[in-house]
What we know:
With about 550 residues, the protein is mainly alpha-helical. The protein folds into four domains: about 1-65, no CATH class; about 70-300, no CATH class; about 300-350, no CATH class; about 355-420 and about 440-545, no CATH class. The chain is built from 27 helices and ten strands. Helix 3 (about 30-40) crosses helix 4 (about 45-55) and helix 24 crosses helix 26. Mean pLDDT is about 90; it is low at about 1-20.
Amino acid sequence: MFAAIALSACSGDEIARVKSNNPSIPTTETQAARFLAQASFGGTYAQVQDVMNKGFEVWLDTELAKPWNEADSHYNWITKSGFLDAGRSSKIGTDNTLWRKLMSATDVLRQRVAYALSQIFVISIEGLGDITWRNVAAAAYMDVLEKNAFGNFADLLKAVSLSPAMGAYLNMKGSVKATGNSAPDENYAREVMQLFTIGLYQLNADGSRKLQNGKPIETYQQQDVSNLAAIFTGWYFGSADDASNLNYLRENMSHNANFFTPNDKPYLGGVIASNVSGPDALNMVMDYLANHDNVGPFIGRQLIQRLVCSNPSAAYISRVSAAFTKSVNGKRGDMKSVIKAVLLDPEARTLPTNPSALAQYGKLREPVLRLVQWARTFNAKPSDLTVKPSAANSWLGPWNIGDLSDDVTGIGQSPLRSPSVFNFYRPGYVPPQGEMSANGITAPEFQLCNEVSVARYLNFINGAIGDGRYDVKADYTGDYELAKDATALVNRYALLLAADGLSTSTQKTIADAVATQAANDDAGCLIRIKATIFLIMATTEYIIQK
């Protein structure tokens, strides 16, 4: 912070000298644009300059200090915007509010991290059939992730576990003590370990597996799943599932001791005595899991993958794990520290200089991030912010981007629309053939990549750039003057969209192509702009984020 303040009083030469000696302050627009691609969703030229002026760390501190805005929560927006009128689908409005905040909310770091968390602590609106108002439940679940994104990991884990959406999705809601031939549901007990905290195998701090006699050591056994399932009993929604009062969908589930497993209950960390209540028992288990040695590397690696690169080095993972383990206010798992460690790490801020290492660095930009980047970079907004009367089960309201999870009619991905609890892709995925397979390079997003999804993306993004997506349209008018110089236009958009990741030859090819379109009036400038955006977003150099 002090370095940023001092810069304002320095001469040009002094600023250059201070920046060159402080890696937390970008020295080029390219560095600032790369940072925004990782810490947000890319940005406008003004936002690039903001990072240049503040520096990486001050920018992060500013974003981390922004409180969660409950007044603008997904729950409040969807319940107050007219989506709950009689006769309308119980899924209407969810996609609207999710796209709304991804594309327009000002707390960009919180939005980016919450979206990353939604790919780790997965629920899907398609799996909430047990809830009448699953649109509200899904919206409230994203609020849980947003609210806890910058807090303590144990608190995040508890909030996720007691969310009505998670309770319905992974069946902890309504799971009861064993009676006769029935047993508690084991779904959440399994996934909270396998996917949300400790994973399948014991890990070193650098993410590598611990070995015993040359074999990986499992973190838990089937009996541990059954033991946790017995502890996770007696949880229900706070009130009846009806439209008269939907507050229960944004509150923690409530506990009914009549359905809680009695007697002493063993678990991974010991035994829960019979006189411990259900809520206290759950907190004990979650605290144990949150403090397990595996969580730092297991969750840290996935956050690196979601924000920076798909195949992080062991040293990078180890440094992020150390940030997770470090005590803040007497607790480990401080998410602010972890986020800063991910985004300020030397491997995040500096590209490899070795050509072979550079070729293996980066990540495939997933389709949702490409679409959101277009919207944010070019100030896409709905043409009308009101919810309009319509027939039952038809679209209503602004931000009508829709469900894009189908790879034929959409882009193969959509927020909170995963086909399973394993997300749209697995964090350990290695393509089955080719150079990445031969080198064992993890590349999760490539699970979304096939002939259909590639072709559909090109058609979809071309349509969005040209005509918008239903009511959501970009505003290109501010760049009409820039568009009169084809080279300058391509250079600016290559910076904003790809952080100057396009080769000189690619930029020249695009500039030569768009220069064939005359830009003597606004109509010609607009054609140039749209063509430039599409040609850049169609290149592999853009699609692979470095």
